[in-house]
Amino acid sequence: MSFFEWGRGGGLKAAGVSSFAEYVKRIATNDPSIRKADLELEGIGDDDAEQLADALEGNTALYWLSLPGNKIGHRGATKLAEKLKTNETIEYLNLGGNKIADGGASDLAEML
Questions:
Q1: CA 98: distance to chain centroid?
Q2: pTM score of the predicted model
């Protein structure tokens, strides 16, 4: 099985993509090579999280999503929760070490 992994604060070059936007576009187009995404310490904020959430809609390839140590707050967490409610493929989600407050955490808990 082929995994496309990016993360740990410098994985863009290792993944062979030039930008976060390119990576999100590949997720949005349901690229079958992207099954596992490790986006730890990539500086992802709410705007990026919202773009990623939109890309997850209809994606059936990605099953593992790890976003620890970023800058995701209430707005990004809420958007991820909204889109993950209908995503039946994601089996693993890690949002530890972000800036998610009570509201975003409640939305994520409701999603479960």
A1: 12
A2: 0.82
Coil, strand or helix at 36:
strand
Return d(Cα 12, Cα 6) in angstroms, integer. Answer: 6
**How far apart, in whole angstroms, are the C-alpha atoms of residue 22 and residue 105?**
28
- The pair of three-digit structure tokens given for residue 27, joined into one six-digit string: 């997720």
Question: CA-CA distance, 110 to 38, in Å (whole number)?
Answer: 24
* pLDDT tens per residue across span 2-61: 334 444 555 555 556 778 888 899 999 999 988 888 888 889 999 999 999 999 998 999
Query: Which secondary structure element, helix H or strand E, spans residue 94, and what is its range?
Result: strand 92-94
Query: Phi-psi bin for 20: left (phi > 0), alpha (psi -120 to 50), beta?
Result: alpha
Q: Which residue's entry shows tokens 């959430």? A: 53
- Summarised one tens digit per residue, pLDDT across range 74-97 is 999 999 999 998 889 999 999 989
